[in-house]
Amino acid sequence: MPVTQAFSPQDAAYMARALALAEKGQYSTTPNPCVGCVIVSSNDEVVGEGFHIRAGTEHAEVHALKAAGERAKGSTAYVTLEPCSHHGKTPPCALALIEAGITRVVVAATDPNPLVCGKGIKLLEDAGIQVDSGLMPAMADDLNKGFNQRMRRSRPYVVVKLAASLDGKTALQNGKSQWITSAQARADVQIQRAKACAILSGSGTVLADNPSLNVRPNELPSDIASAFLARQKQPVRVLVDGKNLLHSGLKLFQDGHPNLVYNLKHNAQLNNQHTLQVQSSCEQPRVNLENMLDDLAQRDINYIWVEAGAKLAGALFENQLVDECVLYLAPIFLGGGARELLSTPVKTSLEQALSGEITSVVQVGSDIKLTCKLHK
């Protein structure tokens, strides 16, 4: 892939705008990547812009080209992801750019999808279009970390949500935990759910709390609610139930939204059109989490938000299946005997400990939201 380092300040400004447009799709594009496009004429005027809204609909480049019309001819297109070169649910965007008479394309990041990966850039160059790539690639990649990981590793991006007191406890000894964190932190969790392709939990948490594990648009900021509603579907709920403890009386089996249940044998209580059961090998004593993630990738799941108890969350950490952790720390102390954050085997040396890099620390209401990217 050709990489041009001599980008102008104007190039950077237009790509920043394209990235801001791409970000608007983070609540609705799944399983497709977020993409933004800005078209700038030869006299430095923005003549068209757009972003990808929902899978199966027009891509960012097409929205921008329609807005530009005849003014696209001789213009530069700033695109956050390499234009596609294959026929899927929509025609190739690279061809649309060629047919519109675009003379230069600036690309933030190449598309890791094997169907594209360099082919879109080659198609543009073969048509005589100047392609300059590698402008703000880290920002573009961060927008699509779930999609990128599924394409590169055939594994979804896994983010575990945790909530704890300042002494690292999640609930009193009797299990009471509502509510450790503030209303603002719980509202932020709704926003994080809205970004996810799937929400993962375990049977213990579901039986204890009887949660809906869905996105409630009326609890989202209006702009995010509007973006999420464009998706036209809820995240898939993924439930780990190795002992077939779940039953049809629970909320999440009654609201008509999709569920995927991973268990060891079929549970007749969960037979309904909105629930699909997937069995692990009966030779194993518990659901194989690695196999589950592999299967979810095959089902086009890019990004998983985990709200689980100490056992399932601990197992994900222990098997090094967590990419990122979001921890809400509440300014309270639950004291001795309270429940631990994670249930994992005892470590005997610091070398056995998992480590990561803190990427964000912000205050949400009275709580601290800490984001940590795990080392692999």
Distance N to C terminus: 27 Å
Low-confidence stretches: none
Helix content percent band: 25-40%
The multimeric state of the shown protein is: single chain
Q: Give the DSSP E fraction (strand runs of 2 or more residues).
A: 15-25%
Computed over alpha carbons, the radius of gyration is 23 Å
By secondary-structure content and strand pairing, the structural class works out as alpha/beta
Count the DSSP helices: 11
Give the helices and strands as they follow along the chain: HEEHEHEHEHHEEHEHHEEEHEHEEEE
Count of beta strands: 16
The major pleated sheet works out as:
9 strands, mixed
Quote the average pLDDT: 90
Spatial order of strands in the largest sheet: 11-10-9-8-12-6-13-16-15
Q: Give the overall shape, derived from the CA principal axes.
A: elongated
Q: Which features does this protein show?
A:
11 helices; 376 residues; alpha/beta; nine-stranded mixed sheet; 27% helix; 16 strands
Description:
The chain has 376 residues and is of the alpha/beta class. It is built from eleven helices and 16 strands. The strands form three sheets. The chain has a nine-stranded mixed beta sheet with strand order 11-10-9-8-12-6-13-16-15. Strands 2-1-3-4-5 form a five-stranded mixed beta sheet, with helices on both faces. It has a two-stranded antiparallel sheet with strand order 7-14. Helix 3 (93-99) packs parallel to helix 4. It starts with 8 loop residues before the first helix and ends with a strand.
